[in-house]
Every structure is written in C-alpha cells, then in structure tokens.
Write a structure and sequence with these properties.
Length: 774
C-alpha cells in the first residue's frame, strides 16, 4: 500500500518488458543483467478461496495483476474489497549463473507466497475470516535458491481490515545482487531522510524550548517530527524492517495520523510565519479539518478511516495551493524568507502531484526527483526559520543596545541629580568642620559627612559596575603616592567606624617610593573597597592593610597589596561566589551588613582589565585575606606647590562656570579660603564672553547648563585659540563622559561631590605648571 506523500520507490518503465499471458510469463529470452522484470499480466485468479499448493481447483478466471479487487471482475461481477483470493502464474526462466530473487511488495492486507509448492514469503497471516487474519505490510527481497528453469507462484491474499483489497504494486524478479542493492539504496534513502527530518525537528524544538518561544519554530518542529514518520513508515515501509514486531493496526494509525498532524502543523506554521498575510480564520478552519480527520482516525476502525484518504488528498492539494498564495503575498510584502517559502512550496507541490499520480497508478515518479525534492523543501523551510531567528536576534541586539543606551542616560541623569545636592552637603560640611566647631557640633558633622559619603559610595558602585560591564572603563595614569593613599583610607575608616573593638593596622614597606605612576583614583577605589568589605564583616580583632615590595629595579616596582581581617571568614565552597555582583557569602547576612554588594565585584573587574587577579585566603570564623600583586613604574618628579601654604592659591584668578547657586556658594567659599579670587558665569555663553585670558588663569566648567552647556563652551573657546586650563567640574558620570571630555580639550575632570584637597591639588597642578593645549 502506498499512502499519499510517501516516498516512492519504483522507478522502472515496463513498456517493452514481457507480461504474463494466460497465467504464463515467458522470460527465457530475457537478460536479467540489464533489467529487473515485473511479474505482471494475466494470472490465474481464484476468488473467495485460499488455494493450497497441491489443491486442484478447476474453475478460475484470468485477472490482471497488479490490480485492486474493486477493479477486478469475477463471474461478470465486480468483487468487494473485503475477502480472500488466490493468484497463480508460471514463470519460464533462462539459464542464469547468478541467483535470482523476488522483490515482493505489500498487499492489502496480508499474503502467503508459495514458490514451487513451498512457502516462500509471508506478510502477516491470511485467514478465511477477519478473526483469523493478521494484516502486515513490508517490502521483501528474497533470493531463489533453487536452480529450476520454471517457477510456479501461488499468492494467497486475505483482506478484512482495509477498505482496499488486492495487489497494487508489481512483484519483481531479477538478479539477487541487483534487487538487493536497489532495496538497500531505497531503504538507506528512507533512513537518511527520516533521520535528517527527525533530527531537524528536534533541533527546532530545542530552539523553541531553550530559546525564544516563537510559535512558528514550534509548529515547524512538530511538522518535521510528524512528517519524518511518513518517509520510513509508508511507501516501502522501511521502518518495519527495523521494528518488525510492531502491530499493523498501530503502524497504520501512525501512518495516517502523522499525515494529518503534519498537514495541520504546516497550516499552523504558515499562519504563524506570516500572520499579516495569512487569513487567520481560513487557516483555523483548515487546521480544524485536519483535526477532524485525526479524531475519526482515532475512534473508527481501519476499514472506515482508510476510506477518507481520497478526500484528504484533495484537501492537501488545496492547502498547498493556498500556502503558495500566502507565500506569494508575503513575497510582495517583502517578508523575511518569503522567497524561500515560495520556492519550498514549488518543491512540495511537485512531490504531492508525483505521489498522487503514483497512488492512483497513473505513472511512477522518479525517486531521485522525490529525494532531492524533499531535501529542497526542508532546506528552504529551515532557511526561512534561520533568517527569522537571525533577524530576531538582530532585533533583540538592537533593543538591548537601546536599553543599554537608555540605562546609561538614566545613570548619568541619576548621578547628576544625586551628586548635585550631595556636592553642597559635603562641601558645606567640610567648610563647617574647618571653622572650629564645638565638640558636639563636630560629632554631628562627622555623622553627616559619613552618611553623605556612604550615599556617594553607593551611587559610585552602581555607576562603576555599569561602566565595567560595558567595557568602557578608562584608566588615567599619573603620579600617585600609594603610601598616602593607604594611610588616608585607613585613617578615614578608623575615624568613622562606630566599633571601638577593631584595631586598624597599617603595614607599609619602608622602602616604598614616594611617587609611582598609576591611576590614583582606581587604586584608591580598589583598596577602599577591600577595607570597606573587611569593616563590614569584622566585629572585633584587627584589620591590617599591608603594602610590601615583591621585586624592584630602576624603573619598576612590584607590590603585594593585601587586606587582612579577623572577621567571620568565608567557607571554601562560597569563596568564588562572593566576587559575583550583589552577592554575599551567606544570604542570611544580607540584612546584617550594609552596602550594595558590588565592592568586591568592582575591584575584581578593575584588576582583571589590567591583567591582575584578586586572590583570597579565608577560613570560616577566623578571618580573610584579600590580596593582589601589581607592578608600577617609579617616577622621581615632585610637584612644586606654592610656598604660601596658608593661602596656596593666593593671587590666582578663577572663572567659575556654574548655574547652581548652592554649588557656586560652596566653590567660592573654598576658593576664598585658599586665597583665590573668582568670578561667576551662569552658563557657557556667558563664560565665552567673560573669559579674559590676561586675567583668568583657570576655568572651573560645569557641563550641564542652560543656554550653552560646558561641552559647547569648551569647543568655542578652543576653536578661537584659548589655552587657559579648563577643569570639568561635573555631577554627571556617563559611561563615556571622560572620552568626550578629553576629546574637546578639557584638561582634567573633578566629579561632584568633590573632595576639597583633590580640587586644590588639581587646580595647583594646572595653574603652577600649566601645559599648553594643542
């Protein structure tokens, strides 16, 4: 039995080959080395009996074979499709040196084949009643071991289970080597296509389950999985050779259900692939029809549901035409992969037409054409989904990039809005602490400064981690005093800690150079994060910050920087986890210790960018040591500050470009305390007009202002040749702000809220040793 859409295996034209006449097939002049011969023509026909080999039945008629019973006449009447019958033919053979063989297809729906009165082949078990008949289908190639020049073939057929009865494909005789080779090639083709389509279905199913849940990918995966059974489970029934013990009833249901499900999934796939072009209601109706056939197949016996296949063939043809129309509309609308979809329908249309013609015995399609037709169809459909998946990924990437840009803009805005008031709070607190407050006032100011700095640390952590994740971290290399950095960090925590039970220890190598070349801000940040982490998890004992020389030459020094504590320690199984963002060693501690949970992750990432590893030694309930080794260049240059230490900026004229009155107030107070004179411009345009190069020695430029911002004002000043040093004093920390700032001619950046000593140092660097701006 050859179901529609099955992979056809016959590819032989028999126009000039001999046929049986009156029950005799004369092949004595046939060359079996050039062709396999179909045993077709007039066979003796015995209706309603299973003739035994030795039984002599006088009455018979001649019937054409292959032919279904519904097209066969017995005693001038058409016979029904259910019943039993026998066929006989005598074959006269030439002398052949090699073994001959018979290729026996399936019959409706079971048979016994006798050769020279001996049982030669069986398919199922033919019986005289439905209860005694066991149907089964397979295609067999069996060698003829006897060397007789005459073969008497007796074929017994019984059918009580299928709406068709009889034989619809030729038995063939030929050289065993040829028939076996052809059969192996046919089965290999079936196995290859079945496996390829099945694995493709699994691939797309995995893509759906573990990737984006695109319904078109799911439906195509299910279509492949269903249709893969059609290749090996119909036509030559190659899968029956692999699983010979599966019942006929089960495999027949699989054969029909796989067809109906495949067509239903293809309809859903088309609807999901191009929803704008596919009429949704019509596609739903088409899918519903398929499921109607599925329901009938499940609940009705084979003799009933097998009758419906003729109607479904018509439906399939309509579906293919309609799918072609949808894909044509998709091509016109320039949908993704629509050209490949249209090309694939051409391939499947050829396959369906070929199989339909073969199913109705009109012609035999070429199996090579069908093989490459299947490959072409599934290849084109896979290309469609590949293009769609790639497009989806591209769109997701673009959306992610937009999201990152929005995040960066949000972080920059958040930074500006938080840092601006913090600048006033921290600045005014520093000023008040320098005005000899009472002890109780100083205590309050300490608390205020600590809280403001803590809030600033949280903001910095979030911004820094975002910068590092984006790969946009920038290192500013310059002179730094690592001893002073370590001392200031430890003194700061010692002054602000509320726990008197902690002893802060500074262990510095006495031979440390006074100046090293490095990024002072990043080095401070790393050490500060490590000390801060130690403070959070140490209730008593000590925290030791050690910087020791590992090796040294005239130009470079390698230092081991470590922070040791006697805190809670970290279990071995959780030591890697603590370097992840927002993570602490034990979630139960997350409410007991403050902070963003980003400090260690940030320090580790900053070091990794420089090719340095942050290491850890820890023992639970005993403490931890975080350490790393870094090489710095040694420099001998010393900055010569003014000798008037009480008024370090005495006589310096500074132009302040700032629109926030509170920030202006804080700046003017600090500058006045340092002996500088200042003038204010409220926006960039006013600054451009007010700048007097003969008077102003430096500009403190805010970046975000009305009328004209600091970026544009700097560009205008540099374009007209002004070389006055410009220090960006900004509360905005966009991920790429430093690159933008240095690119337009700004000399340095101070982020708000600023540390007064840092601002004084930066101003002094540029006023008393101002480099020319190119």
């Amino acid at each position: 039995m050859t179901a529609p859409l099955a992979f056809c295996q016959e590819n032989k034209s028999s126009l000039s080959l001999p046929e049986a006449r009156l029950g005799v097939l004369d092949l004595r002049n046939t060359n079996f080395y050039t062709a396999d011969i179909p045993v077709k023509g007039q066979w003796k026909f015995f209706w309603n009996t299973l003739k035994e080999p030795s039984e002599n039945i006088e009455y018979f008629e001649y019937a054409e074979l292959p032919r279904l019973w519904k097209d066969t006449v017995w005693k001038n009447k058409k016979i029904p499709s259910q019943g039993i019958a026998s066929y006989e033919v005598k074959i006269l053979l030439p002398k052949v040196k090699e073994h001959l063989a018979l290729k026996i297809p399936d019959a409706y729906s079971s048979y016994n084949l006798y050769v020279n009165n001996k049982l030669f082949a069986t398919n199922g078990k033919p019986g005289e009643t439905k209860e005694t008949t066991i149907p089964y289908w397979s295609t067999q190639v069996i060698p003829l071991l006897e060397t007789s020049d005459t073969l008497n073939l007796l074929l017994q057929i019984a059918n009580f289970h299928h709406y068709k009865g009889g034989v619809n494909r030729n038995i063939e005789i030929g050289l065993f080597s040829n028939l076996k080779r052809e059969s192996d090639i046919d089965h290999a083709s079936d196995y290859f296509l079945t496996g390829s389509i099945f694995m493709g279905g699994l691939f797309f199913l995995g893509l759906y389950l573990f990737g984006r849940h695109d319904k078109s990918i799911l439906y195509f995966a299910l279509f492949c999985l269903c249709y893969s059974y059609r290749i090996g489970g119909a036509g030559q029934y190659s899968l029956h050779d692999v699983f010979p013990y599966l019942s006929w009833n089960f495999t027949l249901h699989c054969e029909y259900l796989s067809l109906y499900l495949a067509v239903a999934m293809f309809a859903l796939y088309t609807r999901s692939l191009y929803p704008e072009d596919a009429p949704q209601k019509i596609m739903s109706i088409m899918t519903g029809i398929c499921f109607g056939f599925i329901t009938i197949t499940i609940i009705s016996p084979p003799v009933l549901f097998t009758r419906l296949i003729n109607y479904f063939i018509i439906i399939v043809l309509v579906y293919v035409v309609f799918a072609t129309y949808i894909y044509w509309i998709a091509v016109r609308n320039k949908r993704i992969g629509s050209k490949y979809a249209l090309l694939s329908t051409a391939a499947i249309f050829i396959i369906i037409i070929s199989d339909t013609l073969e199913y109705y015995h009109i012609t035999t399609p070429d199996k090579e054409i069908l093989f490459f037709g299947y490959l072409g169809f599934f290849f084109c459909q896979s290309l469609i989904l590949s293009f769609k998946f790639a497009t989806t990924l591209k769109k997701a990437k673009e959306e992610a990039e937009i999201g990152l840009k929005v995040k960066s803009e949000f972080l920059s805005t958040m930074s500006h809005e938080i840092r601006t008031p913090l600048n006033s709070v921290i600045g005014m607190t520093h000023l008040m602490m320098k005005e000899t407050p009472r002890p109780d006032q100083r205590q309050n100011l300490d608390v205020m400064l600590f809280s403001a700095n803590n809030l600033l640390t949280i903001v910095n952590d979030v911004l820094d981690f975002s910068t590092i994740e984006e790969g946009k971290i920038v290192f500013t290399i310059g002179p730094m005093d690592i001893s002073m950095i370590a001392r200031n960090i430890l003194l700061g925590y010692k002054a602000t800690t509320s726990n008197p039970g902690i002893n802060f220890i500074l262990d510095l190598d006495k031979t440390l150079p006074s100046k090293l070349s490095g990024d002072s801000a990043r080095t401070t940040q790393i050490i500060d994060n490590l000390v801060h982490n130690a403070c959070k998890f140490t209730a008593s004992g000590f925290i030791r910050l050690a910087i020791n020389e590992e090796s040294r030459n005239e130009k470079e020094i390698t230092l081991k920087i470590s922070v040791e504590d006697t805190g809670i320690g970290i279990p071995a199984d959780k030591q890697k986890m603590i370097f992840e963002r927002f993570t602490q060693a034990d979630s139960s501690f997350s409410r007991g210790f403050s902070g963003t949970g980003l400090g260690l992750a940030i320090s580790k990432r900053i070091l990794e960018v420089q090719g340095i590893e942050l290491l850890l030694k820890s023992e639970e309930n005993k403490g931890s040591v975080f350490y790393f080794t870094q090489t710095f260049q040694i420099i001998q240059e010393e900055l010569k500050l003014p000798q008037t230490l009480n008024l370090p900026l005495s006589g310096v004229q500074i132009l302040i470009v700032e629109d926030n009155p509170m920030n202006v107030l804080v700046l003017k107070k600090f500058l006045r305390r340092w002996g500088a004179e200042s003038e204010v411009a409220e926006n960039g345009e006013e600054a451009v007009n007010k700048l007097d190069p003969s008077k102003h020695q430096i500009i403190l430029m805010d970046l975000h202002m009305p009328v004209m911002d600091g970026y544009e004002a700097t560009k205008v000043l540099r374009s007209r040749g002004e070389t006055v040093p410009i220090i960006a004093l900004t509360a905005s920390v966009a991920l790429d702000v430093e690159k933008d700032i240095y690119g337009i001619g700004i000399n340095a950046i101070i982020f708000k809220p600023f540390i007064p000593d840092n601002l004084l140092q930066t101003i002094s660097n540029h006023v008393f040793a101002a480099p020319s701006v190119q």
